[in-house]
């Protein structure tokens, strides 16, 4: 499986998220405590929005802890939205086109988890992708197919509903092939303005996912922490594993739920796949 983080808030230097925390994503790439694997070294990627319409992406096939270009990038790129991912392959090749986040137009997508017996299901799943979208698929992962199914089912208009329909379609195809417990996922996706995160598995035992406590509440709990004064009230993180041990900072995303980080009131709601 993999580890990831997503940030939305006031513009921040990528280095502050990727390298500086005590249990940063780079530390997790070697010493994951909540993942299926301790080491996540099968590639990495970061995506960011200089403008909502134009996300940048940098991906590499080596381990994140040993990439000098990533260090240089992280020390110079500032943005209000970041998606960062370290990969542990579930069987597909280690190649750049299989590294997350995936991009289509102004949308970014990354995933931790798997579609069970993907090789058996792949043909029928890919046939569910809109023919106009199919040429944009570059890699061979289940994660990218899930992204393009979500796009097919209306991600650009209704993200929660589209992901519910995509997951329902995957579960229906899996049932036709006699595959049980087909979906395991935590997903983050963004259009450059809002950020959505999903936690779900068919067996209802999903991989770990956490969101950060409201910054205003954290300032009251930890008035000595100068870093909390450097970010806006809107700043929020969603992570596979907490980045540190600050008391009161992290909250588990409920099972079978999704959240939206946006200007104003954020939202957490139930996630219910819709089969065709």
From TrEMBL:
Annotated source species: Allocatelliglobosispora scoriae
One Pfam match: GATase_4
UniProt keyword terms in alphabetical order: Glutamine amidotransferase, Hydrolase, Transferase
Annotated protein name in UniProt: Glutamine amidotransferase
Glutamine amidotransferase type-2 domain span: 2-242
The enzyme's E.C. designation: 3.5.1.118
Main EC class the enzyme belongs to: hydrolase
PANTHER family, A to Z: GLUTAMINE AMIDOTRANSFERASE DUG3-RELATED
Extent of the signal sequence: none
MF term (GO), any: transferase activity
Alphabetical list of SUPFAM superfamilies matching this protein: N-terminal nucleophile aminohydrolases (Ntn hydrolases)
InterPro entries assigned to the protein according to its UniProt record, in alphabetical order: EgtC-like, Gamma-glu_amide_hydrolase, GATase_2_dom, Ntn_hydrolases_N
UniProt xrefs under Gene3D superfamilies: Glutamine Phosphoribosylpyrophosphate, subunit 1, domain 1
Domain of life, per lineage: Bacteria
């Amino acid at each position: 499986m993999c580890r990831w983080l997503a940030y939305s808030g006031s513009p921040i230097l990528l280095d502050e998220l990727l390298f500086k925390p005590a249990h940063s994503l780079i530390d997790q790439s070697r010493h994951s405590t909540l993942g299926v694997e301790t080491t996540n070294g099968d590639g990495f990627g970061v995506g960011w929005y200089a403008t909502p319409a134009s996300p940048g992406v940098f991906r590499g096939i080596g381990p994140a802890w040993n990439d000098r270009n990533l260090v240089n990038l992280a020390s110079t790129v500032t943005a209000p939205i970041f998606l960062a991912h370290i990969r542990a392959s579930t069987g597909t090749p280690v190649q750049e086109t299989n590294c997350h986040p995936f991009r289509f137009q102004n949308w970014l997508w990354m995933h931790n988890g798997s579609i069970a017996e993907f090789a058996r299901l792949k043909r029928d799943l890919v046939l569910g992708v809109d023919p106009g979208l199919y040429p944009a698929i570059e890699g061979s992962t289940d994660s990218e197919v899930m992204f393009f199914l979500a796009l097919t089912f209306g991600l650009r208009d209704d993200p929660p509903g589209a992901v519910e329909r995509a997951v329902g379609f995957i579960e229906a195809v899996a049932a036709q092939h006699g595959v049980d417990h087909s979906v395991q996922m935590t997903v983050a996706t963004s259009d450059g303005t809002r950020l959505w995160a999903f936690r779900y598995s068919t067996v209802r035992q999903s991989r770990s996912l956490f969101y950060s406590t409201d910054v205003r509440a954290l300032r009251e709990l930890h008035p000595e922490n100068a870093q909390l004064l450097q970010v806006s009230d809107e700043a929020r993180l969603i992570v596979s594993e907490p980045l540190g041990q600050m008391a009161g900072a992290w909250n588990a995303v409920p099972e079978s739920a999704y959240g939206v980080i946006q200007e104003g009131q954020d939202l957490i709601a139930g996630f219910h796949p819709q089969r065709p």
